[in-house]
Specification:
heterodimer, A: alpha+beta, D-Maltodextrin-Binding Protein, domain 2, 2 domains, 5-stranded mixed sheet, 3-stranded antiparallel sheet, 11% strand, B: MetI-like fold, 12 helices, flat
Chain lengths: 422, 311
């Protein structure tokens, strides 16, 4: 009898365990901005979520950044098991056009957290036909990073407020014999933001909803003010940056900034995560982007976010995770560790980390929207996909002296005229 | 007379059966490899070739349709294709010629035994064991204008005042990627040629010496003719590999600056990564395959004609 009871009990336990295992749901999640540091941060957040949902297990897929979108396109195209997918703003339209992303509007309608999002963010996300397909997990915008320790050696104690001051300071400290330069130029790795920030700062009537149009609806590429702006951009390369920087992408830029070769850098907040590890506190600071002769500068909001494939079998759970990720505690943790700007208003209000220290540059820019005009790129236009590489290649030809500024802007004008159907 | 004939017939029948069984055995053994190659190589090649005639990009996953030769028109019209084609020709010509000459020289040097030859061979052949892409990245940092080790050494030795922008100047950039490719490919030629050299009977050289032949005479009349089949097959293979070898260029310059170091293979990859236009990339791929097929047919015809004494 005793043996019989033991057998029954063992079988019952085994059944319960197997039922428990069978009920555990696995969510497949893919990130695109992969780095070892970011993967660890996401794993920590996943652990927290799994603690709250013992029957859920999240399998994080982390393809290398360079090939991440190819993987996303492939997985979505052939409907591979995927429940949460990360997409950045520059690729959002392309991913949505696959027809595999869930429209999140019905979810947003019943979500109180939507009101907590930074103003304008949902509007930016809805660039894809007025519907939101992702919930942003971090915001990115360029600011001026500088090295006070290096600049002090050359007697520069005031942070440049204008593009001309930045240029003058950069020229002042440039001395190739000492391998000292001023501006951390970006020649490759899709330098669209860098080119446009300097060029458009000469123009006072850029359309905030389209970086390449004026408020009168015309393209600015043949505008004399843009030509002046591009001349300054070229002068930054010729007179304040190493010639090798025509081949510099993000890694080389950070390397040059950390080593002090180029103490002025335009970069996104996610660079702070890396710089905090590579430099001591106070060795670098941020300031608002310098304004151009127009008295303005046109940074753009970048964002990444989480979406749900429309064929996912666990949409509700995936939405639970996205909501969890967008709570103040988790959002603040992610943004602090990774270095993105938070997507929630309350995080800025309640956490001084995001309004002081290295985040001061952005705080100033957000305070003055007439001077720092956040402007959108035509991300939904089919011309956008090929534009960034085309702009990079034609700009490199110009930097090498194989194209004049006018020849280059003629090409750009024709490109966008055709893309906008003008 | 009849009995031996019947015995012979029986023997012949049984050997025919054995032959048939052997053929079946060989067929079944080869079948899995054949199926795998068919699925993993030929099917994607055919699918990729068909894609070259369709409209298939990130912005068009839903309405994929045939567009005839439009993709080819697009690539032929742009200046990038012409640049990449010329670069591919120079890339192959310089890389393979220099790899062959230097690999041959290295093999001749290593032919005679000397102390530590094994270790020396290991060190020399090491680059061949590394990933081409990793080598590209490694050299891109070594040749970096600001932080590069090579510039640093040249400046410290007072050979240079300023660092050379190896990868920023288009002329230097192309020379740099070819130089690294030559360095990477020498071991392959050296290994192949050394193995062939070791198969030449020493008696041939001894006889030639008795007849009064000098080193140059021996090289052109014994060494080269004897290892010619190895040289032919190695050069044939190497040209195909070098044409299809974007790794080093991609790791070092990604085809830049301004596309000046693009070869057809890197141009194709850039179309996939930066334009997400898969059918246009397939059109470039089809051009590469067609060029290689023509080249292989021509080369095989030439060498078989040579062997048959027609040339």
């Amino acid at each position: 009898m005793k043996r019989f009871l033991v057998i029954i009990l063992t079988l019952a336990i085994l059944m319960l365990v197997s039922i428990g295992i069978a009920q555990k749901v696995t969510l497949n999640m893919i990130q695109v901005f992969t780095s070892p540091q970011r993967t660890q941060i996401l794993q920590n957040i996943i652990k927290e979520f799994e603690k709250l949902h013992p029957n859920v297990q999240i399998n994080l897929i982390s393809p290398p950044y360079e090939t991440a979108y190819q993987k996303v396109y492939l997985m979505l195209s052939i409907k591979q098991p995927l429940d949460i997918v990360e997409v950045g703003d520059w690729s959002l339209e392309g991913v949505v056009r696959l027809g595999r992303m869930e429209n999140l509007e019905p979810y947003i309608k019943n979500w109180s957290g939507a009101k907590e999002l930074v103003p304008g963010l949902l509007k930016a996300v809805r660039a894809t036909g007025g519907k939101a397909y992702i919930i942003p997990n971090g915001v990115y915008a360029k600011a001026l990073f500088y090295r006070p320790d290096i600049l002090a050696k050359y007697g520069i104690t005031k942070v440049p407020q204008t593009m001309h001051e930045l240029y003058a300071d950069s020229v002042k400290i440039t001395n190739p014999d000492k391998n000292q330069y001023g501006f951390d130029f970006r020649g490759t790795g899709l330098p669209t933001n860098f080119i446009d920030i300097i060029t458009t700062s000469y123009i006072n009537d850029i359309d905030p909803s389209n970086m390449y149009k004026l408020t009168n609806g015309k393209l600015w590429f043949k505008d004399p003010r843009a030509i002046e702006g591009l001349k300054l951009y070229l002068d930054f390369y010729k007179n304040t940056a190493p010639k090798d920087s025509i081949n510099w992408g993000f890694d080389e830029q950070v390397n040059a900034f950390v080593s002090g070769i180029t103490p002025f850098l335009f970069q996104d907040p996610d660079t702070t995560g890396l710089l905090n590890k590579l430099l001591k506190k106070g060795e670098y600071k941020t300031a608002p982007l310098p304004v151009g002769p127009s008295g303005k500068v046109y940074p753009s909001y970048g964002f990444g976010g989480w979406g749900i494939p429309n064929y996912s079998k666990h949409k509700e759970l995936a939405w639970e995770f996205i909501k969890f990720f967008t709570t103040p505690k988790i959002s603040a943790y992610f943004c602090k560790e990774y270095g993105a700007l938070p997507v929630l208003k309350s995080v800025y209000e309640n956490d001084p980390y995001f309004s002081t220290g290295v985040f001061e540059g952005w705080k100033e820019m957000f305070k003055n929207p007439k001077k720092y005009v956040f402007t959108s790129y035509p991300l939904a236009n089919p011309g956008w996909t090929k534009w960034t590489k085309y702009q990079q290649d034609t700009m490199q030809q110009c930097l090498l002296g194989r194209l004049s500024i006018e020849q280059m802007t003629d090409k750009w004008y024709e490109y966008w005229k055709k893309s906008f159907g003008m | 007379m009849t009995a031996p004939f019947i015995r012979m017939m029986k023997l012949s029948n049984s050997s025919r059966q054995v032959g048939l069984k052997l053929k079946r055995f060989i067929f079944w053994m080869l079948l899995p490899t054949f199926v795998i190659v068919l699925i993993l190589t030929y099917y994607p090649t055919v699918e990729g070739s068909i894609l070259a005639f369709k409209d298939y990009s990130v912005f068009n996953f839903q309405n994929i349709h045939f567009v005839g030769l439009d993709n080819f028109k697009t690539i032929f019209e742009g200046p990038e294709f012409a640049i990449a084609t010329w670069n591919t020709i120079w890339w192959i010509a310089f890389s393979v010629t220099l790899q062959l000459i230097l690999g041959f020289a290295l093999a001749l040097l290593m032919r005679k035994p000397f102390k530590g030859r094994g270790l020396y061979a290991g060190i020399v052949f090491y680059p061949w064991a590394l990933s081409g892409f990793a080598i590209g990245i490694l050299w891109s940092w070594l040749l970096n204008g600001q932080f590069g080790l090579i510039n640093d050494i040249l400046i410290k030795m007072h050979i240079l005042d300023h660092g050379i922008n190896f990868l920023a100047n288009p002329k230097y950039a192309f020379i740099s990627v070819i130089t690294v490719n030559v360095w990477y490919g020498i071991p392959f030629f050296a290994i192949m040629i050394l193995a062939a050299l070791q198969s030449i009977p020493t008696s041939l050289y001894e006889s030639a010496e008795i007849d009064g032949a000098g080193s140059i005479m021996k090289f052109f009349h014994i060494t080269v003719p004897y290892i010619k089949p190895t040289l032919v097959s190695t050069v044939l293979l190497r040209i195909i590999w070098v044409m299809n070898f974007p790794d080093i260029i991609y790791g070092m310059t990604r085809g830049g600056p301004a596309g000046t170091t693009n070869i057809l293979a890197t141009y194709m990859i850039n179309i996939v990564y930066f334009e997400s236009d898969y059918s246009k990339a397939s059109a470039v791929g089809l051009v590469i395959i067609s060029a290689l097929t023509l080249y292989t047919l021509f080369y095989l015809k030439l060498t078989s004609s040579y062997e048959m004494g027609e040339l």
